Known about the structure:
Layout: H1 2-17, E1 23-29, H2 43-50, H3 54-60, H4 77-85, E2 90-94, E3 99-104, H5 106-112, E4 118-123, E5 126-128, H6 156-161, H7 165-169, E6 178-183, E7 198-204, H8 224-234, E8 236-237, E9 241-242, E10 249-254, E11 256-257, E12 263-265, H9 266-279, E13 283-286, E14 292-293, H10 311-321, E15 325-329, E16 352-357, E17 381-384, E18 388-391, E19 397-401, H11 404-421, H12 427-437, H13 455-460, E20 465-466, E21 471-474, E22 480-487, E23 498-502, E24 510-513, E25 515-521, E26 526-533, E27 541-547, E28 553-556, E29 563-566, E30 573-576, E31 585-586, E32 597-604, E33 608-616, E34 621-630, E35 633-640, E36 647-655, E37 658-666
Parallel strand pairs: 6-10, 6-13, 7-10, 13-15, 15-16, 16-17
Antiparallel strand pairs: 1-3, 1-4, 2-3, 5-12, 5-14, 8-9, 11-12, 18-19, 20-22, 21-22, 22-26, 23-24, 23-27, 25-26, 27-28, 27-29, 29-30, 31-32, 32-35, 33-34, 33-36, 36-37
Helix pairs in contact: 1-5, 8-11, 9-10
Amino acid sequence: MKRLLSVCLMVVVSMLSANDTPQKFWIYFTAKEHIAFSKTSSPAELAAVTGISERALHRRAKMSSTLITVDDLPVQQSFLTQLKERGIAVQNTSRWFNAATAYLTNAQRVQLQLLPFIRSVEPVATFKRKDVPQIESAQRSFSKQSANKYSYGFSETQMNLMNAIAVHNIGISGRGVLVGMLDTGFRWKIHDALKNLKVIAEYDFIQKDSVTANEAGDSWDQDSHGTSCMSLVGGYKEGTLVSSAFNAQFILGKTEYVPTETNVEEDNWVAAIEWMESMGVDVVSSSLGYKVFDAGQKSYIYADMNGKTATTSIAATIAARKGVVVCNAMGNEGSGATPPSITTPADADSIVSVGAVQSSGVVASFSSNGPTSDERRKPDVSAQGVSVYASVPSGGFTGGFGGTSAATPLTAGVAAMILSARPELTPLQVINALHATASIALKPDNTIGWGIVNAYKAVLYNGMVIGTDPEISISQSNEYTISAYVVSKDTVNKDSVRLLYTLNDGSVFSSIQMVLTEVVDQATNSGKYSAVIPATASAPKFYIRAVDAANAPRTSPYNAPTNIYDAKNGTLNVGKRDEVPSAFLLHQNYPNPFNPSTMITYDVPVTGFVSLSVFDVLGREVRTLVQEVQTPRTYFVRFSADGLASGVYLYRLQLNNHIQTNRMMLRK
Length: 668
């Protein structure tokens, strides 16, 4: 009987090999790698063993006391090794789905399905996105003279429509928020409106490198769409383009391949959002809405638009449940369609799905409509998606960018504003604020959802806020004047608004009453409050505290005085007070596996001679990274593996007589 089965399998494989062009497949596994950790482990300890950043773990704490779940455990390395031994090159791995993707022939697919550690093998979807043509607006104007804090140029219309300028005017512009962008690519380093943005990481999931701008092999317009979308979250060029969250930090993921037509493979999107979540993003903006597959593939139908079928939709929901506000385009398949024209992953649960309107507020004819097939209302909210003013990769600007692609980053910028003012909010609380304050909140529909975003009302929806962009001025006699807006929809207790500052890094704080110097709303005591720190030889660090009528205290920055503003050189920096690590600790490198570089982090609790070196598996030293006396603090060292072969490496940290060693994987 066994011989008969073997002969049959050989016949099937032989038949499949006749027309055996490799296609990309998801390979789902039956088990996961085991990682030992305790429920009482600190975020630093969890980060060290899982590779998930402390920032991500602190964000997850808003959602649950269980910071690490089964879907965070890595794919079992032995399974990947067995694939490699069979000549299968893994393209992406997914912790959340316990899977890898690879190009397989039909013969390989059949053979893999017989292996005991393989649960299933399924095709990777390749989606096509429908764009709208760029049409320059015939009429465009802006106010050259105004009382606004910034000059918006031609971007004033789109910012005014969603009432975001009013939020800038009270000193909130995304500070403290980490925004992830999923798109075609980003030529940001040379653009006047983008080059000063705080980009902390970027990765090309197509060519597997850290370059997200155009490079060899890319279509000439590969990075066009992503550059424009990025500018609508954080673009800043005074008098030309000012977007909502220009003081945020950014992580960039290049996921969408643009050869001759716009398409994307879903495993790139999943790999990117997993990576961003593990890095600690607060908001993700994805202007990628899909419905039609490439020819010859299984396509989703409207019945599948339930948030539980498309892989990208499931991944978006997982990210939301881990505390990320995911903003995704509804698609450009047409408004008022029957059946509804909603695309994936806009059908995902607990995310912000964004529709498009004209500058007049009328729904755009191309904007996809809802509801989902399980009858959830979509979109959630809408923003301008016609004749939007945005950056282009050449270094200039266009007034004709459009689609729900444009409306989505505009909305993501508002979500960043909300979290800048209220970082403790969960994704559902942010969504509720957007819903409750939008233009048709009392009568939502399935064309523009709860309506056009109202940033100012949404920021204040959950209570009093203190501006996260305090103003600092220094007199000739070295007096520091600190001003910040304290605004509430209820009433600010004026006597409670105080400036607390320190000249010795927090050992002692002095408290000064702040005075209302500029009224925003007399009825609620909302406005700009100011205080003067007496002449000092050293730059102060400070925070602001206030209480509203409900006796609810707030600080700026959030979680002060652990987090604190630094007025050094008259500029504003935000960070933790200098803290001495409590223990000697070598953290797990990140990313891991990596190519070509990775970050190694370690804690030094006492002054001593520190040595950090990298060894191959035979114990031969291949790099010396640190050899010096270091004082107590946390250190970050980037290791570049140029010239080294793929494989496992050890990195060893020694402080005086203490030694710790970890493993890392270089995968080229």
